[in-house]
Specification:
The chain has 277 residues and is α/β, with parallel strands linked by helices. It has a single domain, classed as TIM Barrel (Alpha-Beta Barrel), CATH 3.20.20.70. 51% of the residues lie in helices and 13% in strands. It has a 9-stranded parallel beta sheet. Strand 4, helix 7 and strand 5 form a beta-alpha-beta unit. Helix 2 crosses helix 4, helix 2 runs parallel beside helix 12 and helix 10 packs across helix 12. The longest helix has 22 residues. The radius of gyration is 17 Å and the shape is globular. About 4% of the residues have low confidence.
Length: 277
Amino acid sequence: MSRIKNTFIKLAQQGRKGLIPFITAGDPGLDATVQLMHALVKGGADIIELGVPFSDPMADGPVIQRASERALKLGVGLADVLQCVREFRINDTVTPLVLMGYANPIEHMGIEVFVPQAAQAGVDGVLVVDYPPEECLEFTAGMKAHGLDTIFLLAPTSTSERIEQVAKIATGYVYYVSLKGVTGTAAIDLSEVNIMMPKIRQHVTVPVAIGFGIRDAATAKLIAGVSDAVVIGSRIIQIIEAHQDTGAKVSADDKTAQQLPAAVQDFIQGVRNAMDS
């Protein structure tokens, strides 16, 4: 059984909802990324989404775009992201890790190279924003062969046909994008979420996580009431930005780098407490 599936089973048994924080690998540095991943777990994360830096992150708003730019300035690529996963796995073999990014870095490495390396590193699932289900059959087949989950996006504009399409091949969980637009730029509309969720549940049998527009503990609690998991990203990136000079490399022994994991952990702990209350 995959770590993702096992996590959702345990959450259901406990009557709890999943908390899935997102950070961009390499922001503010590779050493800091691994520290932040452990801090997220200590704060109550159930699954971690690790963003792969890319020069044209079309689904992401300015906050996560800046995170990608900072990581790319440090030369962080897909191979470095996999190394972060390997280092994280030295001390944590339980928490599921999902890589979230775009097709270009994966295809540049080669699907036939990336998938087995991801599995070996300790990745549990991959969400490729610009891989529609009908155009990534080779990718999903390779993922399945290596025991990895392929996670797909659904949106407020998704038709019943698209939902059915995703339902047939999605594993791990489905990520419902609650907003029409990019990450971190608007508040979530709960009424629209309440309309879409029954339509999704009609076809999708894997857990449904909701993200985009969730910026605080109170909103996370509301969304947890209608979903299986809550994804929160841009707000965490803003905390990271607040603890560094834009574009500056943060070393492992820097005072800011030591304070940053604690700040992120405190924020996630607050969200976790609200969701569990």
